[in-house]
């Protein structure tokens, strides 16, 4: 039900053809057993406009990302698939721009199961290839 409500609200704000908006969708979860925390799910970085997206979608998303991750209180979750070259990670590149020491960046490696035979992620997982504090 939560996912459906988020999808419906996204469509109301941006249309149903992969549009974006910097208008936040607020979802409040209350519990006496958790910390007060704000999570912001930003759009993934994209290179090519699809559907009704404007031609400058890449710059719009980059601007939106920078608006949030430039804040010193923001922890950056930089998600990168293991089956691509870490040196080409857009998420890590933009995180390094605002957090060059990696103090606020949490690196997340996904899709380990899709790595080519004979390759491994040991250096990444042991924080040797691109050291991050988190």
UniProtKB/TrEMBL annotation:
| Residues forming coiled coils | none
PROSITE patterns in the cross-refs:
G_DYNAMIN_2
| UniProt name for this protein | Dynamin
Which positions, given as ranges, span the membrane? Answer: none
Arranged from A to Z, the UniProt key words for this protein are:
GTP-binding, Nucleotide-binding
**Quick one: a GO biological-process term for this protein?**
synaptic vesicle budding from presynaptic endocytic zone membrane
Residue span(s) of domain Dynamin-type G:
1-134
InterPro entries the UniProt entry points to? Dynamin (IPR022812), Dynamin_GTPase (IPR001401), Dynamin_N (IPR045063), G_DYNAMIN_dom (IPR030381), P-loop_NTPase (IPR027417)
Which one of the record's GO molecular function terms can you name?
A: GTPase activity
GO annotations of cellular component type = cytoplasm; microtubule; plasma membrane; presynapse
The organism of origin for this protein? Plakobranchus ocellatus
